[in-house]
Amino acid sequence: MTMPIMTEALPVRGAPCWVNLLVRDLPGAQAFYAAVLGWKFDDSGILGEAFSVALDDGCPVAGIGARSPFLAAPTVWTPYFASADVNGTADQIRERGATVAVGPLAVGEGRAAIASDRDGAVFGVWEGAAPVWSSGAAGPRPWLELWTRDVFEAALFYGEVFSWPRPGPDAVDVAYEEEQVVARVSGRPMAVLSGGAVGSAPDPRIRPRWIIHFPVDDAPRAAAQADRAGGETFPSPGVRSSEYVVRDPEGALFTVAEGAGL
């Protein structure tokens, strides 16, 4: 498990601070995402030879690392949420009937864990200085949506684990809007929780999961590039136009969407 270059600032507790993907074929994944999203990669080895930071117009947006051959987990894009105490957060996750699959363990100068909620949606927890894009720098950062069976049950789970809502200088606000739950920091949406997932569905696109939406200027073009690069694309099951679900060559799902997202 790897994390990107860090800043000096600590992220807002309970807010998303990074997205990461572990793959079997790192050069192949880099070639695919370069073709689809135009990413370049920082392979300077600051955090090890098996890890790269994806750059969009020079701005760090995501991490892609080589997975250990002994790790049998599926290839999945994973959002990380900030915690002041990853051990305590892991305990909160377990106490609420969810699973901590990896960690907590030391990663560079921070600590991390990978978990799944009660419906099986995978997410990470990070303690330490913030990954680069959470520091407020402008750039095409992704946005997050939880596709879940029961939006209120999910809001209760994540609210208890990450203290949503919360007043104070690092306030997190939560509101019910158009049959979705939206969590905000400083008035800016950080994640949306949407219902409609089917827990036992054979199709992973409609099973509970955290969806990583990557903004693009031309979603149909990005989808066509994905098909040509060895991926597979589908119309989004949501109501937004100009949005496609993409399955990369190793099976990881993500979304390309036009516009600013949330």
Automatic annotation (TrEMBL):
* Record PROSITE patterns: VOC (PS51819)
VOC domain span: 15-128
Q: Pfam families recorded for this chain?
A: Glyoxalase, Glyoxalase_6
User: Entry's InterPro entries?
Assistant: Anthracycline_SecMetBiosynth, Glyas_Bleomycin-R_OHBP_Dase, Glyas_Fos-R_dOase_dom, Glyoxalase_6, VOC_core
Q: Which domain of life is it from?
A: Bacteria
User: Which named protein is this?
Assistant: VOC family protein
Organism annotation: Streptomyces arboris
